Amino acid sequence: MRAPEISPHAPGPGARGALHRAASSGRRDALHHRVLGRRSFLVSLAGGPACLALSACSDPSAALDAGERFYLLSQLLTGFEELDEIHAELYRSSVEADAEWAAALEQLYEAGGFHASPPKDLDELEASGALELAPEVADQITMMWYSGIYVAAGGGLQVATHLDALSWRALNTNPPSQCGGPLGFWSAAPSV
Predict the structure, then answer these.
(1) Contact 133, 109 (CB under 8 A)
(2) CA gap 25, 136 in Å, rounded
(3) Smallest Cα–Cα separation from 95: which of 132, 122, 72, 70?
(4) Nearest to 139 by CA among 80, 90, 73
(5) Taking CA 16 as the corner, what is the angle to CA 14 and CA 21, rounded to the nearest 5 degrees?
(6) Residue from 66, 141, 60, 151 nearest 106 by CA
(7) Has this prediction a pTM greater than 0.85?
(8) Rounded to an integer, what distance in angstroms lies between the CA atom of residue 30 and that of residue 5?
(9) Cα separation of 1 and 4, whole Å?
(10) pLDDT at residue number 186
(11) Would you list the DSSP string of 139-171?
C-alpha cells in the first residue's frame, strides 16, 4: 500500500488534512517517521551554511524566464527602463509566434548571455555580437516599442498603443490627441 503524498505547499486542508486522514484511518504504516540521529543532525547543520554560501554566489539573473529576458532585452534596445509589462507580453508573443523570429530571438539570448549573465547595457550587448546574429528581430522589437504596433496572430498589424508608444517619450512631447497643458500652453516658447 502506498502512502499518500503530503505536500507542505498545498492550499486548503493540504498536508494537515492528509496527515489527519492517514492517522485517523489507522494506517500508521502510511506515516513514515524518521528518527534524526546525532550524526544526521550534525551533518544537516554543517550543510546549512554551505547551501547559504552557494546561493549567495549564484547569479540571480540566471533564472530569468522568457518574459523577464524579453523585458530586459527591450530595456537595452529602447534605452528606457520603465516599460509597460502588458505591451511587453504582446510584443514577445508576436515575436515568438513566428518560428524564424523565435529561433533568432533565442540565438540573440544565447549569444548575448541572457541565460547566464545578462548584459548590463547596450554596449555590452553589442560587444557580444548578439545583435549581428539577429538584427531583424532586434529592429522589430525596437519598432514595436516605439510605434506601438505589432504583428498579430493572423499576420496583420495591430495597434497595441498609440498614447504609450515610446516615440512620444523619446521626442519629449505628447501624442497629437493629448493636451499638453492648461489653456494657451502652446503660446509659450518651448524650453530647449
Answers:
(1) no
(2) 64
(3) 70
(4) 73
(5) 100
(6) 66
(7) no
(8) 10
(9) 9
(10) 76
(11) HHHHHHHHH-EEE-TTSSEEES-STT-HHHHHH
Give the residue extent of every domain in the chain.
Answer: 62-171
Q: Can you give the pLDDT at residue 15? A: 37
Cell 550543510, residue? 47
- Residues of the chain falling short of pLDDT 70: 1-63, 180
| Chain position carrying cell 499518500 | 4
| Coil/strand/helix, residue 73 | helix
pLDDT digits (tens, 9 = 90+) for 75-125: 999 999 999 999 999 999 999 999 999 999 999 999 999 988 899 999 999
Pairing of strands 157-159, 149-151: antiparallel
Q: Where are the alpha helices (DSSP H) in the chain?
A: 14-24, 38-57, 66-78, 85-97, 99-112, 122-127, 130-133, 135-147, 166-171
Q: Which three cell numbers stand for residue 44?
A: 544537516
pLDDT value of position 82: 95
Give residues with Cβ within 8 angstroms of 169, minimum separation 6.
Answer: 80
The pLDDT, as a whole number, for residue 153 is 83
The residue written with cell numbers 549569444 in the block is 111
* Amino acid found at 55: S
CA distances from 60 to 102, 114, 152 (A): 24, 12, 33
**137: amino acid identity, one letter:** V
The pair phi, psi for residue 23, each rounded to 5°, is -70, -40
